[in-house]
Amino acid sequence: MIRKNILCALAVSLTLAANAQVSQLDINLKKVGAPLQPTMYGIFFEDINFAADGGLYAELVKNRSFEFPQDHLQGWKAFGKVEVREDGPFERNPHYVRLSEPGHPHKWTGLDNEGFFGIGLKQGEKYRFSVWARVPDGGRETLRIELIDPASMGENQFYTQNRVVVESKEWKKYQVVITAPKTDPKAILRIFLESRNGAVDLEHVSLFPVDTWMGHENGMRKDLAQALYDLHPGVFRFPGGCIVEGTDLETRYNWKNSVGPVENRPLNENRWEYTFPHRFYPDYYQSYGLGFFEFFQLSEEIGAEPLPILSCGLACQFQNENADAHVPVEELQPYIQDALDLIEFANGPADSQWGKLRAEMGHPEPFNMKYIGIGNEQWDALYLEHLEPFIDAIRAKYPEINIVGSSGPNSEGDQFDYLWPEMTRLGADLVDEHFYRPYNWFLAQGARYDNYSRKGPKVFAGEYACHATGKKWNHFYASLLEAAFMTGLERNADVVHMATYAPLFAHVEGWQWRPDLIWYDNLRSMRTVSWHVQQLYGQYKGRNVLPLTMNGANVTGADGQNGLFASAVQDGDKIYVKVVNTTDKAQDLVLNFTGLKRKEAVKGIESIRLTTDKLYEDNTLDEPQNIVPVKAGFAPESMEATAKGTAMSTTIEPYCFTIYVIQR
Q1: SS3 of 302, please?
Q2: What predicted TM-score, i.e. pTM, was given to this entire model?
Q3: Whole-angstrom Cα distance, residue 192 to residue 163?
Q4: What distance in Å separates the CA atoms of residue 354 and residue 447, rounded to the nearest whole number?
Q5: Confidence of residue 642 (pLDDT cuts 50, 70, 90)
Q6: Cα separation of 486 and 301, whole Å?
Q7: What pLDDT, on a 0 to 100 scale, did the predictor assign at position 466?
Q8: CA dihedral in degrees (485, 486, 489, 490; nearest 10)?
Q9: 3-state SS assignment for residue 339
Q10: In this structure, are residues 543 and 569 in contact, taking their beta carbons and an 8 Å threshold?
Q11: What is the rounded distance in angstroms from the CA atom of residue 91 to the CA atom of residue 99?
Q12: Who's near 345: CB < 8 A, 6+ residues apart?
């Protein structure tokens, strides 16, 4: 039987060789390699491109607590007699509005809210309007709540009217569920003081879809959270990114401000509000409604390990060359305590100080956090001086926690070369590498991790994406090169333990950075080709690496390898062979399987192909299925594949990422 299989493999090889150049890929099934970590492929969230408010966080009202600092009514249009006051019921959100009788029977007092690029409504869907309110002088006041189209050609601007009766001198929360009678991506919320008996005070005005992800009242937009779940992520890094650092320390992301009652979470200036004057959004703030509790909860629900990143006391070094912008090392203790308290919030018992808050928020059981990152893209000795006391403190109190350090903002160079040995010296468990790089870089990096040290910290490829010169938008060819690069991550699973594409989200009317993994408007979302690449790696991750070579060498796109990149993994009796053809020529392949037991053979089950001739296009909101993977039996008509014993012949199309599913 063995002799027969060898002859079959030889016959396949000779037949193909007679017709064209054939790439022989040898997969050794006996020499099972490193396990792939559960965290291998994951997601990275940063509030850029209106990823939180106006994106994943399902709140539809902008500036709901009247706290935008330049203009407390930014996002609102006031009419009649409206006064902003600042002695409200929530200590960290003191502002509210008073609506008073307008002084004439034919005048009106009220507010319009524009939402985030409008308020998206779907016909038949239910929306929960809520508001904290009081009648300061006592009595009873009625608010009329409308969803409107100000440009309507109908008799009425409003789609629907609902009423809220406020009848207490004390602050109370009122709510009403509204059903949208039509679909409109650009609706406006209007609030009238209808009763006109006196004044009414309003604070924390909110509008949420009732149908959020997992039904949470302070929840996530369902289609966007579903897109994260469908990636099969192993790790979820949050909340950034550069917002961890802040343009200055006052505006860094402070996790303690993002937990507790949502009404009392203070507004924060977004690091990306002022960064790009060519794409400028002066109303870009963080409500902290999507806070650390929600991040942990979402991680749990999508099956990913949470990886929070905290400030190390350094503001963004790109934006602050003056050392005075940073916390002196001798004054770091409050920042270190923040890290220790976060671990207690995530993992502590329900009777501990921070574990008690977690339990009060609805999660008495620990989140079982295993990883924490300190600092984002910091560099040089200044970073090391700040990082070391964090590591010492965390190791002393929580030795089981894995600590992630940084290799700086570059994928190579002096800073990178300096920081890696220092991360080893300090005993970091993982090192976060970032690379937004062009075509040529990705084509040249197939063997990047083949020669990394197998001792010391592991790699976290924490932010990466292919950025083409002159084509800095999502398109297929860039995604194909990301797929090629990822074969090297997979092959080196003993070194690379985590990898996350970045950025994750972008609103089509509010983006500042591209490419991005998932795009959306107020009602629709689109999964890019890069999303499909990530999803395929997550779905066909496997458990252990299998050696795959061509002429004895790893398949890394090197000279003489015909532009091919490849890796193989084993998952029980399944074998996943991933091959990327980065050239414009179809290529004949032979997959040779060695190390089979006596009388054992392999057979092809299916192939999954991601390819197109539209190299510089992607999916769109109007055509979300423009370029998607195609599943087929192992012998789709275009592949002319055969499977005989220990060798399989096939043809991979030009510019194609294919996963071959083999059963032994």
Answers
A1: helix
A2: 0.94
A3: 9
A4: 45
A5: low
A6: 26
A7: 97
A8: -140
A9: helix
A10: yes
A11: 21
A12: 259, 292, 354, 355, 357, 358
Tell me how far apart the alpha carbons of residues 516 and 464 are, in angstroms, rounded to a whole number. 10
Tell me what pLDDT residue 64 has: 98
Q: Phi and psi (nearest 5°) for 31?
A: -95, 75
Tokens of 307: 């990886």
3-state secondary structure 464-509: EEECECCECCCCHHHHHHHHHHHHHHHHCCCCEEEEEECCCEEECC
Q: What is the C-alpha separation between 627 and 616, in angstroms, rounded?
A: 11
Tokens of 126: 């239910």
Residue written as token pair 């599913």: 661
User: Does the structure show a pLDDT above 50 at 639?
Assistant: no
**Burial state string for 425-438 with b = 16 or more CB within 10 A and e = fewer than 16:** ebebbbbbbbbbbb
Q: Tell me how crowded residue 495 is: count the other CB atoms within 10 A of its CB.
A: 20
> Among 194, 344, 377, 482, which one carries the catalytic annotation?
377
Q: What is the token pair recorded at 374? A: 């300190």
Burial of 283-302, coded b for 16+ CB within 10 Å and e otherwise, reads bbbbbbbbbbbbbbbbbbeb
Residue reference for tokens 């010492």? 392
Retrieve residue 384's tokens.
């090391």
pLDDT at 15: 43
Sorting pLDDT into bands at 50, 70 and 90, what band is 599? confident
Q: Indicate the angle between helix axes 222-229 and 292-302, nearest 10 degrees.
A: 50
Tokens representing residue 494 in the block: 């003993």
Specify whether 170 is catalytic: no
CA distance 450 to 623: 39
